[in-house]
Amino acid sequence: MAEDNSSDVLSTEKLSKNYRRSRTRFTEEQLKILINAFDQKPYPSYATKQKLASEINTEESRIQVWFQNRRARYRFQKTPEIKEALESSGGHGEDYPSPLDLSTVQRESRRCRTNYSSSQLHTLIKAFMSNPYPGFDSREQLAKETGVPESRIQIWFQNRRNRFNIQRKRKSNELLEQDPGEEH
DNA sequence: CCTCTAACCTATTCATTAA
DNA sequence: TTAATGAATAGGTTAGAGG
């Protein structure tokens, strides 16, 4: 088959030095603590995540991602063991009281909203225009340059891409709707 | 090869803040 | 009060380490 992926679509941005953070290896002891915390509270507050981070000596952003992945796995497989545990305890599992139901879980305090200075925004926007998908090294560089934590840089790029796409979509929809001859 | 899962992504929603 | 935007969510994809 012909390799037709040489098209210009992903020539500059996605291919260029776009590498991930190296994979974190949790020790058994760390996992024990994390799993225990998850069983107690699958939606930990920011303060709790910070506490866990210092407790197992890792970054708070790794804790955040770990909980995200754990919830996804838990929800997806809904493991037979857990289902059994739910039913064996008389219809309602006390150990797992549908902990992933957001409507019943009261969410606790988030991380404080970050305020960016205009010079920080200037740096970030410039970087975004040159590459909206910065790899780990690029994000670290930006963090160093702006003094903003790398985890905030990553979130900033996510939000920026989303809102950029939303605007783009709305524009194309408006173009479609403005067909000439539309009466009224 | 295959499985597991950290890292990453989009889309949406919640929440804070400046105008 | 509202618009802009940071933070968190669900849920999906990518990739690295080990069987």
Task: Let me know the largest β-sheet.
Answer: none
Catalogue the unreliable spans: 1-16, 79-97, 180-184
**Strand content bin:** under 5%
The radius of gyration computed from the alpha-carbon positions, rounded to a whole number of angstroms, is 22 Å
Described by the principal axes of the CA atoms, the overall outline is globular
Which secondary-structure class do the elements indicate?
Answer: mainly alpha
Distance between the termini: 54 Å
**Count of DSSP strands:** 0
Helix content percent band: 55-70%
* Tally of helical runs: 7
Reading the helices and strands in chain order gives HHHHHHH
Provide a descriptive summary of the structure in words:
The longest helix is centred in the last third of the chain and has 28 residues, at 150-177. 55% of the residues lie in helices and 0% in strands. It is an all-alpha fold. It has helices spanning 28-40, 46-55, 60-77, 80-88, 118-130, 136-146, 150-177. It contains seven helices and no strands. The chain is globular, with a radius of gyration of 22 Å. Mean pLDDT is 79; it is low at 1-16, 79-97 and 180-184. Helix 2 crosses helix 3 (60-77). The structure holds a DNA duplex (19 and 19 nucleotides).
